[in-house]
């Protein structure tokens, strides 16, 4: 089955207001910027987003966030995204913050058909006991707090019950993909992308290099095409457009002074 769609706008054409999205990437690495920009151009709003973070440096999900298109975020990291923090504290945005490893496993579990699992992460904290601010009232008070979760003991250790995550759509970025949807991710872009792709009922992948079926060694496939419904081939310019979040330059040392 040829899953290639001609344009990013066509690929996200059925993503409607209020849809839930699992979005790959971490910081600026492996973010499906072209698909996100296509959603922005369509004017979709009221989105519930599941992603490690909500964009950075005015790119990625930060584009939708700044436009007021996101209603809820499930993630594990705010970082230096000042607009994310502002909307959260002002009561404009509902935010569920969970441990990073738990987020990864909730996405994987949802994609694997596992409705829930137990983990020790969060036991003895508000993650398990409830009370984490999901939404503020804009005046410093909490309008909506997280509920308590079930805690059980196994072999003398307590574990908290976490639900698997399934979303209406997933947006991911891969270094290489074929027309059947088999994907390969490059280095650190293989972070949340495979997990987000598994969690989406309809998964859309933008790929930097599109190849024919059979061109990818089966042992090199990071995500089988069964998890991917649509593939968008990026232009060379789109594939090369990659930002650097933290640019660090070291001061050169004079010869002979290294020690």
Automatic annotation (TrEMBL):
Q: Which UniProt keywords apply?
A: Transferase
Q: Please indicate if the UniProt record lists Transferase as a keyword.
A: yes
Q: Which Pfam families match?
A: CoA_trans
Q: Which GO terms describe its molecular function?
A: transferase activity
- List, alphabetically, the InterPro entries matched: 3-oxoacid_CoA-transf_A (IPR012792), CoA_trans_fam_I (IPR004165), CoA_transf_BS (IPR004163), NagB/RpiA_transferase-like (IPR037171)
- What top-level branch of life does the organism fall under? Bacteria
Report the family membership.
Answer: Belongs to the 3-oxoacid CoA-transferase subunit A family.
The protein's matches in PANTHER family, at most eight in alphabetical order, are given as: ACETATE COA-TRANSFERASE SUBUNIT ALPHA, KETOACID-COENZYME A TRANSFERASE
What name does UniProt use for this protein?
A: CoA transferase subunit A
Native organism is: Streptomyces coerulescens
